[in-house]
């Protein structure tokens, strides 16, 4: 088997972040160098605890979890308790973590890891607002040429936004950080709502997780039961979109997805469209492509992969 791909997961768990972390920890193709928490779905004090809870659920208390940015770069923090519940991880009852939070700041960990490892080897998986990565770029611009790639869940174009008509949550929360990241010349794969809104947690899919003869499967089902209720009501769909695990699934099975290499620009000025990802899908400008934007997913293939991997956890 080839050497596992070194990744850092930057995240604001969040039930869908949690499933992404479980998928990564269940996959031998990936080596999780660390997890950096960021403020987003809920406050930082909760996202870092949630990240540790999930590592322990996966039987991996050895994973290093760091606390990162407590708020976005410029704007005030906007959270999403309406979707994820008061804790950010409402649904299952998970024990308080016993593993310790790392003492170093998450942004320092990002910079030190990227500067000490061989250039072009470390992949960043961005599952929340891009504040930590934006701050790392400001502190140490040389990391831009050392990041192998960023795979980020965020944005939406044909599908519009989910927090305003124009903007998706992760980009809306910290559009200034997102703009820095998209203008840094780093290879980026962006997984927007256009793609994740096809990956619906139908009852049959959740039941498959619940039936797994381990701890992680039923806990995932309990998380998704809670998580999907908001979107089911909002969109009237059979199940809610399982956004963040798409990032990890793309690393494991890119053939599940289809997209285009195009230009993505981030709106940071108009209050009306703040945080909009302006995606030049039809290549009608001369702005250079800076990201591969995924628009389609084989949803059943994605959920089959998830079930197969979650089955490997304790
Ligand atoms: C994104 O926002 C968060 O609520 C989810 O965890 C996901 O990262 C979807 O817009
Ligand atoms: Ca997230």
Summary, kept brief:
The chain is an alpha/beta fold. 36% of the residues lie in helices and 17% in strands. The protein has helices at residues 15-25, 44-57, 81-84, 106-116, 131-139, 169-173, 175-182, 193-196, 203-210, 216-235, 245-252, 299-310; strands at residues 5-11, 30-37, 65-67, 122-126, 147-153, 188-191, 257-262, 264-266, 277-279, 291-297.
Overview features:
globular; binds calcium ion; single chain; 36% helix; 314 residues; two-stranded antiparallel sheet
**Beta fraction of the residues?**
15-25%
Distance between the termini: 23 Å
Ions, cofactors and other ligands present here are:
beta-D-ribofuranose, calcium ion
Do you know the CATH topology?
A: Inosine-uridine Nucleoside N-ribohydrolase, Chain A
Mean pLDDT across the residues is 97
User: Could you estimate the helical fraction of the residues in percent?
Assistant: 25-40%
Q: Looking across the biggest beta sheet, what order are the strands in?
A: 3-2-1-4-5-6-10-7
CATH architecture: Alpha-Beta Complex
The helix/strand series, from N terminus to C terminus, equals EHEHEHHEHEHHEHHHHEEEEH
Low-confidence stretches: none
**If you compute it from the alpha carbons, what radius of gyration comes out, rounded to the nearest whole angstrom?**
18 Å
Shape: globular
Name the CATH superfamily classification.
Ribonucleoside hydrolase-like
Integer count of domains: 1
């Amino acid at each position: 088997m080839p050497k596992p791909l070194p990744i850092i997961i930057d995240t604001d768990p969040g039930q869908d972040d949690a499933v992404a972390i479980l998928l990564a920890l269940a996959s031998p193709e990936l080596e999780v160098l660390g997890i950096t928490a960021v403020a987003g779905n809920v406050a930082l004090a909760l996202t870092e605890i949630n990240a540790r809870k999930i590592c322990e659920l996966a039987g991996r208390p050895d994973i290093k979890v760091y606390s990162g940015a407590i708020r976005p770069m410029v704007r005030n923090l906007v959270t999403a308790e309406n979707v994820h519940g008061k804790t950010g991880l409402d649904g299952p009852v998970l024990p308080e973590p016993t593993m310790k939070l790392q003492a170093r700041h998450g942004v320092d960990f990002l910079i030190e890891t990227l500067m000490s490892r061989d250039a072009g080897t470390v992949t960043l998986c961005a599952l929340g607002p891009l504040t930590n990565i934006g701050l790392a770029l400001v502190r140490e611009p040389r990391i831009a040429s050392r990041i192998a790639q960023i795979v980020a869940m965020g944005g939406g174009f044909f599908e519009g936004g989910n927090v305003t008509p124009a903007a998706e949550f992760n980009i809306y929360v910290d559009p200034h950080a997102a703009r820095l990241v998209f203008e840094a010349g780093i290879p980026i794969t962006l997984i927007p709502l256009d793609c994740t809104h096809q990956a619906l947690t139908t009852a049959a899919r959740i039941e498959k997780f619940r039936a797994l003869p381990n701890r992680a499967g039923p806990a995932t089902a309990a998380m998704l039961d809670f998580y999907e209720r908001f979107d089911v009501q909002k969109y009237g769909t059979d199940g809610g979109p399982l956004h963040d695990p798409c990032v990890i699934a793309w690393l494991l099975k890119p053939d599940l997805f289809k997209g285009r290499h195009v230009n993505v620009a981030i709106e940071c000025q108009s209050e009306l469209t703040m945080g909009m990802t302006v995606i030049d899908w039809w290549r009608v400008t001369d702005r250079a492509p800076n990201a591969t934007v995924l628009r389609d997913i084989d949803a059943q293939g994605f959920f089959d992969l998830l079930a197969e991997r979650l089955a490997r956890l304790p």
